Amino acid sequence: MQPGDEPVGKFSYTDTPLLTNQIPCHITYTNDKVHDILRTGFDKSPMFNGRIQGLGPRYCPSIEDKIERFSDKDSHQLFIEPEGRDTVEVYINGFSSSLPEDVQFKALRQIPGLEQVKMFRPGYAIEYDYFPPTQLKLSLETHLVKNLFFAGQINGTTGYEEAGCQGLMAGLNAALAVREEDPLILKRSEAYIGVLIDDLVNKGTQEPYRMFTSRAEYRILLRQDNADLRLTPIAQRLGMRGADARMEKVQAKKQAAAEIASFFRNASVTPEQINPYLSAHDSAPTIQKVKLHQILLRPHIDIEGLATALPELQQFLTPYTREYIELAEINMKYEGYIQKEHEMVEKMSRLEELRLQEDFDYNSISSLSLEARDKLTRHRPHTIGQASRISGVSPADVSVLLIHMGR
To answer: Using CA of residue 379, residue 384, residue 385, residue 388, what is the dihedral sign?
Structure first.
């Protein structure tokens, strides 16, 4: 059994009630019998007989692909995911397949837990083409056709979230273009959407692109607990519906986190008050009065636990929601790392502010490498920062551009 998260998270900062009754998923595994049955259909699979020639997604390959590529593995993990509360249907995550229906069904019944399974719909394979996203501006407008915006799998991505976020950005920028206003370009330090689009436009992709946290260099800033703090001001600036009300919530959250942090920096505890709690959590006892902030910075110590040991703290925290307390705790515990990342952003933002003319003739700068001239002419970056992330543009080429701009 794989139970859901506790406490249950939410996808937004609205007043959606918390889920109280979760349905668990389950894990099971394939085995040698399953693999042997699947192999009998390999010659009929469009993935193997040449009917489909495109590259599949690296991060969620079909079951036949896994058996072929990882032939040393005796089993592969599968997630059994319920499709809803009012249906017996489940989704077998990890068993996508393009094999004949009868082969899929026989193999499914050899999986532990699925011996009596019935199949509503067989798995299938699709193949789609895409336009290389290096032909796009960061607004997702095409270089070649003015006011034509591309979004989704046409840009070489796979996954619903990747497609959805591009649709949001392309729609926003199409509307801004009609109003003859500047496009909205989210930075890599502002949102994962910014990382995804920047990667696609500057680096392109040879296989279906997926957004992973590891692709972002500012992961400490791009947290789910501060998504509203990062993006609500942008929504308000654009005049999006409901943004004013959301901004009031953001301000309240920021103020609450600041008040909690102030309390921790000013309140002190004696050894008698705190040492029993520290000992219970394998943390060294203190021999003198210390600020609560210093105690919180220790490993395995959290605000919730401290509140159970300190009635005064418990009383202070009563008006604050879990969301506010969590933000304050993260800000305090990771303050040094967050500050360091902000400094990195500041350093890079100086390059982002140096704009390049879209019709600039890079071939006129002989000191640029031939590859840089070719890539810059093809990509048409808007800023020095964007130019620095294009594959084939070296730090030396960036220096040449800076000198050329009188920097």
So the answer is: positive
Q: Classify the phi-psi angles of 113: left when phi > 0, otherwise alpha if psi is within -120 to 50, otherwise beta.
A: left
Q: Which helix (H) or strand (E) holds 342?
A: helix 335-352
Residue 407 confidence (pLDDT): 60
Contacts of residue 219, defined as CB under 8 A and 6 or more positions apart, other chains included, come to 213
- State residue 307 phi and psi, 5-degree precision: -65, -35
The most distant pair of C-alpha atoms in the chain lies apart, rounded to whole Å, by 75
**Given CA atoms 267, 270, 274, 278 in this order, what sign does their dihedral have?**
positive
Q: Which pLDDT does position 334 carry in this prediction? A: 96
- The predicted structure's pLDDT at residue 69: 85
Write the DSSP symbol of residue 359. Answer: T
Task: Kindly state the DSSP code that residue 320 receives in the 8-state scheme.
Answer: S
| Residue 333 DSSP symbol | H
Q: Give dist(CA 186, CA 180) in Å, integer.
A: 18
Residue-level pLDDT at 15: 81
User: For 186-226, where are the alpha helices, taking DSSP H only?
Assistant: 192-203
Cα torsion at 25, 31, 33, 35 (round to 10°)? 90
pTM: 0.84
3-state secondary structure of 232: helix
Look up tokens 């505890």; give the residue: 269
- 143, two tokens: 């270089």
Rounded Cα gap, residues 38 and 107, in angstroms: 6
Structural domains of the chain, ranges and CATH numbers in brackets = 1-127 (2.40.30.260), 133-219 (no CATH), 243-333 (1.10.10.1800), 339-404 (1.10.150.570)
Residue closest to 346 by CA, chosen among 336, 335, 357, 338: 338
Task: Enumerate the H helices of 112-203 as residue ranges.
Answer: 160-178, 192-203
**N- to C-terminal Cα distance for the chain?**
60
Taking CA 32 as the corner, what is the angle to CA 89 and CA 45, rounded to the nearest 5 degrees? Answer: 65
In the chain, which stretches have pLDDT less than 50? none
> What pLDDT is attached to residue 8?
86
Asked if 38 and 64 count as a contact pair (C-beta separation under 8 A), the reply is yes
